[in-house]
Amino acid sequence: MPVWMTSTEPVDYPTAVVEMDRRVAAIRAGTEPEAIWLLEHPPLYTAGTSARRDDLLDPDRFPVFPAQRGGQYTYHGPGQRVAYVMLDLAARGRDVRAFVADLEAWVIATLGEFGLTGHVRDGRVGVWIERPDKPPLPDGTMREDKIAAIGLRLRKWVSFHGISINVEPDLSHFDGIVPCGISGHGVTSLVDLGLPVTMDDVDVALQSRFTQVFGR
Questions:
Q1: Which residues are annotated as catalytic?
Q2: pTM above 0.85?
């Protein structure tokens, strides 16, 4: 089983990247075990390898960091559970698409612990919640809000970066970007949906559902 690590204080992004790089190298060298790192960041934006400059709407609002992961702009901040996933895919089948699908299934199973049904959509990265309680989009499509982001990087078949779930972040902080380059739909959180869920509750659900999805 991977080692589970939890940081109780916000971790600045450059520090997290340095630690992920170190851990990935150690996993590949066989000197340290796989790890799941649960943390929060101070308010910041990250730009994935596909980020478009026009999607950064308020560049002076928070620090902006280039990220090694795929994807576009993402917000991280207090009230959002980030899980950095450092796993050895060489020992887990070397199937990147299946691994991403497992990350999605892990998030969906975790949300299910709180009575929510998460969805993945073609052309839209992350996990989404249907919002029939909100006005539909102009074309009549049901509004959906994003509740979790997924961004991944591999180095020598060891994964890093991972997932983030909105527990109780300040949702107005997402206004400075077009999250993941997707317009029209919104962003939500567990507490925004009326669920009195704590970060500890989410951590328990993440750990209990990890084995169900990944097996070990």
A1: 180
A2: yes
Measured between alpha carbons, how far is residue 130 from residues 100, 119, 133 in Å?
21, 8, 9
What is the secondary structure of 29-59 as a DSSP string?
Answer: HTSS--EEEEE---SEEEE-TT--GGGBS-T
If one counts every other C-beta atom within 10 angstroms of the C-beta of residue 135, the result is 8
**DSSP 3-state assignment of 183?**
coil
CB-neighbour burial class of residue 136 (10 A; exposed 0-12, middle 13-18, buried 19+): exposed
Query: Does residue 126 contact residue 150 with C-beta atoms inside 8 Å?
Result: yes
What tens digit of pLDDT does each residue of 144-182 get?
999 999 999 999 999 999 999 999 999 999 999 987 656
Burial category of 171 from C-beta neighbours within 10 Å (exposed 0-12, middle 13-18, buried 19 and up): middle
Positive or negative torsion for Cα 114, 198, 83, 66: positive
For residue range 88-138, what is the model confidence (pLDDT) as tens digits? 999 999 999 999 999 999 999 999 999 999 999 998 889 999 999 999 989
